[in-house]
Amino acid sequence: MNRTNTPHTFHIPVMGTGFSIDTPAKVAHYGISSVISIVDDMLIETMRELYCTECDIPFDPIGEEEDDYRARRITMYLNLIDKIVKKRFDRLKCSLLEKGGELQKYIEMLPDLSELKQRFTKFVRNNAMKQDLERWVNDHFHPGSIDVNIMTKLDKQTYREEQPLPVEYNDAHAALRGFARSTLRSSLVLSAGMNPRLYGYIAQFEDFYPDEQGQLKKMLVLKVSDYRSARIQGQFLARKGLWVSEYRIESGLNCGGHAFATDGYLIGPILEEFKNNRELLVTSAHEILTEALRKQGRAVPRQPMELRLTAQGGVGTAEEHQFLLDHYGLDSVGWGTPFLLVPEVTNVDSHTREQLGAATENDVCLSHISPLGVPFYTLKGSSKDVERQRLVGSGRPGSSCPKEYLEFSTEFTERPICVASRLYQKLKISELEGLGLSPEEYQFQFDRVVEKSCLCAGLGAGALLVHGMDSRLQGGDGALVCPGPNIAYFSEIVSLKTMVDHIYGRTNIIRRSDRPHMFINELKLYVNYLKDQFRESAKPLDEKQRNFFRKFRNNLCNGIEYYRDLFSRTEKRWEGMRRDIHEELSAFQNELERFARTHLEPVQA
User: Fold this and answer.
1) pLDDT, tens only, 286-334
2) DSSP state of 488
3) Where is average pLDDT lowest: 69-78, 125-134, 331-340, 570-579?
């Protein structure tokens, strides 16, 4: 799919393993793009059986004893979703003259200033012939993209009968192969940093290479947090003849799920750097790409290919959405967390959805529960957390680890196991008991061990519970949810149309009047993160630690100065909150100065 055909200015990012696993089947026929996680092939196979049953399509199960079962499951599921979306989109176009039909809903949800919407309205107003209108709709209306996500870190070694399999059977490699062999014409979103071996494997699949017109069957999207990383990764792929069609810039902390914090670099200045260097990003990669393609004897695009810049993380109002598009020249803005409150779009069980609607800032925390060792946003009191605490209380902490996607620790075993597993936690606790620790230190270390949670089961449970399926065989009934801090300002369970109307400023579903601007909220998160990192660091600070905290603090101060200038230059857009913004910036500046004076000044002799 050519991204310039996308009629909306927002997209729905990947959410967990199960929340958006079938979102395209629900929204793509309305022209809305969304992303499926292709990590959990066990859940994917279950969802394939569900949709085959619903759509009266024969289901041929792919067992784990079969060769390349993981990639084959993913290919079959993506082909099924592709077929469902095409069928629903064709049916939508057939509702052309139906009042209240699906096509009318498609049109009503478009941005009011959309050229597509205005031209359609003009056609109808001028009483165009039905066949002319049908032809025009067929030529100009398009479904949203069915994109997929691979977290590049999830690429562990796989085994069969205790024997390691070749590298192409690694988890991320197999998922990539599953997408590459599918019928989709869409994007592969790569997140969590660079994996050179996986990036090299992409080059084996023809669909990722352009033709002379620069058209691609399958596109690459890199989720990044800074310009330097984007340039390095883009050029690395270009040397293999592969083009990055989109850089998806995500806030390091104002996001959901795993939080990959920067060293105090804020989203506003990061977006400014991308804006100022966009042309260089294109031309430098294009030169490398064309040389690589010529050496390979492949078709060379006649001109630089399309490069999209998008952003996501913490956006919550139509004003913020439009500002990101206008000021930074973005092609789309990601809205994730708010869609957890839209039953038409995401898989969240009713109990968890009610918890999300009632959540405040204190209910969403940056935790240590992820087995990956990366900070992870979670909702306190989730049913998975209750389940975990019950197991700890019964003396059987840890998960049975039925899915095994996060097995990376070789601390106690030759073959990697997951630190959230019952086996690992039993071995680790046994080790702690033999160290002769004080009761206080033992409890601290014990809590750190047993707080690790089974993300594989917890993040997929919602999809099973929503559809009335038994989740016990896939890790228990407990559901884990990973909203961003932005959920505190959304309290209503709403329809898809209402949420889209909120995004485009046709309605407002935020009832609180104290929500800070997304840039200010991210700044607050980073200041708190800085203080938390300081509290957890060994004392006294050595010079390396001191330099880290100085750099972090200085980057935040530079970001504050950037925002002061930005909000002063664009003050007409923020009439209702201009004074609050400047007061909040000054308050954070003062807080950082106090932090530096108290903790980072040289110790006086």
Assistant:
1) 999 999 999 999 999 989 999 999 999 999 999 999 999 999 999 999 9
2) G
3) 570-579
The single-letter code of the amino acid at 363 is D
- Cα 43 to Cα 85, 119, 250, 342, 543, distances in angstroms: 20, 42, 26, 21, 48
What size, in residues, is the chain? 605
486 located within any domain: no
One domain, residues 122 and 210: yes
Count of alpha carbons within 13 angstroms of residue 94, beta-carbon side: 6
Q: 453 and 320, same structural domain?
A: no
End-to-end Cα spacing for the chain: 66
Is residue 115 classed as helix, strand or coil in its secondary structure? helix
C-alpha distances in Å from residue 508, one per residue of 92, 177, 245: 28, 42, 33
Could you say which of 480, 504, 538 is where a domain stops? 480
* Same structural domain, 454 and 541: no
Q: What is the pLDDT of residue 37?
A: 98
List, in order, residues 6 or more apart from 601 with CB less than 8 Å away: none
Containing structural domain, residue 71:
3-339
Tell me how far apart the alpha carbons of residues 108 and 506 are, in angstroms, rounded to a whole number. 11
> 545 in a domain, yes or no?
yes
Pairing of strands 376-379, 364-367: antiparallel
Query: From the DSSP assignment, how many helices (H) and strands (E) are in the chain?
Result: 20, 12
Q: Is residue 492 part of a domain?
A: no
Q: Which amino acid is at 588?
A: F
- Report the candidate in 33, 16, 30 with the shortest Cα–Cα distance to residue 333: 33
